[in-house]
# Entry
Amino acid sequence: MVEAYPRVDTSTDDKNQRGMSLALFMHLIQLSRDYVIYKYLHERVQLTAVVASDSSDKSKEKSGDQKAYLQQLESSRLKLNQLEQELW
# Structure
């Protein structure tokens, strides 16, 4: 009896399939590594932004405290001048 379909060498098809699967697997690993690196860098940038914002807030608070202190000194100086004038 004559076969209707000629025999096909499936060994090369299996090798190609395995090669493609391996390439896909390696690509997925690389994507996973890239994602982990991206996520790490993104978190670092966010942390840096938070720290910078926090520093800015503290600097503003400090600036406000310094202004209040200077105003208090100026007020005290004016009172002292008034008292000196009253004494003379």
About this structure: The chain is about 90% helix and 0% strand. The radius of gyration is 38 Å. The longest helix spans residues 10-87. Residues 16 and 32 are 24 Å apart (CA to CA).
